[in-house]
Amino acid sequence: SIARNSPAARYLSERNLTPRDYNSYGSRRGNDAVMARGTFANIRLVNKLVSKTGPRTLHIPSNEEMDVFDCADRYREDGTPLVLIAGKDYGSGSSRDWAAKGPLLLGIKAVIAESYERIHRSNLVGMGIIPLQFLPGQNAETLNLNGREVYNISIPESGLKPGQKIQVEADGVVFDTIVRFDTEVDITYYRNGGILNYMIRKMFA
């Protein structure tokens, strides 16, 4: 269900809906405004930028803790693209389509994870989000990454190959990752900003 103190609830309340009519995110899958606000809205979410579980994060420039959507909105207003740092089997679970659509709407441009759920990796590519994977034996902890860093990801303008090593720099920490574009088609989707943009351009080419 949609929590009464959530960004999605505020959005629905502003449109004169009462709490009894909020229903669930599943019932509102066709409403991108609600679903964007519901991205990462899991009470068991563990975000190491904050001390409590749930859909909260830290707006680093202000050091203010807030809902994930509100924080992403601030970064969008500032023109700051976002990187998500994750652990193993990132993206596993239900609602896999919105698990990729939501991050896109929040302004996430790349994910760096230890591993990916198979379908979710493909969905990220379809949304134009770069899936990077830590090298074996490495993760955020071993590299002393805490999520407060500024990340620079060096994607070559040409000659990109499936599974290629991609260098990442995070506040002086330099490490290699594997780009999880597993096929040439994945690279084509990425170069076009996702599968939808690719299909539109193909139709009008």
UniProtKB/TrEMBL annotation:
It comes from the Eukaryota. Residues 9-135 form the Aconitase A/isopropylmalate dehydratase small subunit swivel domain. InterPro entries: Aconitase/3IPM_dehydase_swvl, Aconitase/IRP2, AconitaseA/IPMdHydase_ssu_swvl. Pfam families: Aconitase_C. Its cofactor is [4Fe-4S] cluster. GO terms for molecular function: iron-sulfur cluster binding; lyase activity; metal ion binding. The keyword Cytoplasm does not apply. The keyword Iron applies. Keywords: Iron, Iron-sulfur, Lyase, Metal-binding. Belongs to the aconitase/IPM isomerase family. This is ACO1_0 protein.
